[in-house]
């Protein structure tokens, strides 16, 4: 009677040779979990999966770090600097942070006695956080054009060694040429790619009264032994356009020399034919000069010539000698004292 009321218990263990169909995703190894997440169409699926349980949160840490922190953009203030500091100490995340884009605060109508302090821009704490990122290969600063930005960068860059950094990008930044030059020389073993877009350089003046900050910074790149790729767009010095060409009237809109390519870019108006038009001379248009030294075998000679271009224009030779390498097609040998017979 008792046996009929209490049926015999059966084992829940699967028989030998059978497959356990009750296995779930949290039973899979980390490698398979990563593979599954790779094919998910939306990164938010990773966040949802991490909320299921602690085991899945642990197994999805690598995919989570790659999805949200491999290429990260930060609006720099006191809170984000502290967050970067914490992430740099989190091993499951910091090893996957390969690209960091830092956007500076925009100055408002309100005036601050100390803008850096008011916005919580602690260069020392940010420097510590960046140095602690073991895989950082791309570093970009954007929108640091306020009054004290050069002071901020001097405190940040002068003592900032980054062992894995290959690409350095500045866009809409006011900075001291000496600070950037020191940073480049400190990291010259692996740095190879440079992009300077609307960079306003500040630097000391020579005895003759001519400031040459772009020469100071580009000379630092020459200390690198590896092949480099250098892009410069709309360069400035102390808020004014810095023309690296010796005389724009002697050059067309495009100029080539070995690995050096110089072009004049401008905004075009919408039209039916080829997207726009341009007319007039250089001074009448809202355009800018771009300089590109390609990562080729002759990149060093090309960069040296660009520096000589700039120095020639700054010093403005008193005699009527032609600028560096300005020769016609029949005479390919340049005898000027500035360029040193590059051709």
UniProtKB/TrEMBL annotation:
The name this protein carries in UniProt is F-box domain-containing protein
Q: Which InterPro entries match?
A: F-box_dom (IPR001810)
Where the record annotates domain F-box, the positions are: 22-67
- Cited PROSITE patterns: FBOX
């Amino acid at each position: 009677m008792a046996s009929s009321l209490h049926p015999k218990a059966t084992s829940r263990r699967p028989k030998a040779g059978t497959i356990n169909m009750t296995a779930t995703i949290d039973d899979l190894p980390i490698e398979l979990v990563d593979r599954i997440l790779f094919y998910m169409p939306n990164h938010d699926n990773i966040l949802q999966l991490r909320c299921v349980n602690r085991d899945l949160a642990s197994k999805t840490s690598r995919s989570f770090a790659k999805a949200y922190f491999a290429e990260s953009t930060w609006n720099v203030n006191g809170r984000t600097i502290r967050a970067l500091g914490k992430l740099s100490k989190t091993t499951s995340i910091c090893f996957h942070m390969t690209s960091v884009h830092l956007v500076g605060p925009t100055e408002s109508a309100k005036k601050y006695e100390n803008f850096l302090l008011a916005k919580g821009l602690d260069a020392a704490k940010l420097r510590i956080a960046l140095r602690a990122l073991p895989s950082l290969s791309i570093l970009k600063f954007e929108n640091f054009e306020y009054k004290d930005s050069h002071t901020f960068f001097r405190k940040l860059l002068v003592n900032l060694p980054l062992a894995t950094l290959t690409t350095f990008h500045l866009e809409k930044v006011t900075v001291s040429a000496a600070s950037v030059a020191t940073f480049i020389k400190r990291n010259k073993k692996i740095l190879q790619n440079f992009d300077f877009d609307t960079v306003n350089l500040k630097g000391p003046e020579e005895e003759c009264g001519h400031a040459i900050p772009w020469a100071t910074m580009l000379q630092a790149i020459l200390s690198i032994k590896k092949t480099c790729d250098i892009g410069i767009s709309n360069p400035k010095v102390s808020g004014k356009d810095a023309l690296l060409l010796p005389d724009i009237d002697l050059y067309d809109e495009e100029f080539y020399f070995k690995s050096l390519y110089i072009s004049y870019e401008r905004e075009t108006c919408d039209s039916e034919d080829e997207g726009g038009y341009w007319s007039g001379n250089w001074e009448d248009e809202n355009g800018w000069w771009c300089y590109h030294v390609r990562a080729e075998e002759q990149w060093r000679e090309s960069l040296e010539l660009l520096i000589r271009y700039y120095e020639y224009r700054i010093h403005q030779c008193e005699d009527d000698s032609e600028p560096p390498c300005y020769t016609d097609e029949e005479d390919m040998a340049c005898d000027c004292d500035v360029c040193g017979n590059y051709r």
